[in-house]
Specification:
By secondary structure, the protein is mainly alpha-helical. It contains 4 helices and 3 strands; from the N terminus they run H-E-H-E-E-H-H. A 3-stranded antiparallel β-sheet has the order 1-3-2.
């Protein structure tokens, strides 16, 4: 986990910033150490499927055109990108995903992405709130 956890945290932050979308803030005690969910940029080409379903067309297009495979669940009125990190993954894999999504979804690579949230800061706040709640319960 010494390799995977920092890599997935970095990848989620980098993708979120590049796409101008939030990543799902999950308290560290509930977070899978090798997975993250990042919101995908809106795109007229891909409709948001019903909650609990995934966008097969988007997944297929990324795989066929860019040789990138991600799971694309939907909830909260958005399509999300679920990434998983394994020991064979590297930063280059996540840069490839970043560029494939930007190209496919029409995100202008010349425009710096605006962050909707500061995920690491949000996660720290959530963790602090959880600690306070636990201390108050004792």
């Amino acid at each position: 986990m010494e390799y995977i956890s920092p890599l997935i945290e970095w990848a989620a932050e980098m993708l979120s910033e590049a796409w101008g979308t939030p990543n799902l803030a999950i308290p560290s005690n509930m977070r899978a150490p090798c997975m993250a969910l990042i919101g995908l940029p809106p795109c007229d080409r891909y409709v948001v499927p019903p909650v609990g379903e995934w966008n097969r067309q988007l997944t297929d297009d990324l795989r066929e055109k860019y040789n990138v495979y991600i799971f694309t669940p939907s909830f909260g009125g958005k399509i999300w990108c679920r990434i998983c990190c394994q020991v064979y993954n590297s930063e280059e894999d996540y840069y490839k995903l970043r560029d494939a999504v930007k190209d496919l979804m029409g995100v202008n690579p010349a425009t710096p992405a605006k962050r909707l949230t500061n995920t690491l800061e949000n996660n720290r706040k959530i963790e602090e709130n959880n600690k306070i709640e636990v201390e108050n319960d004792e």
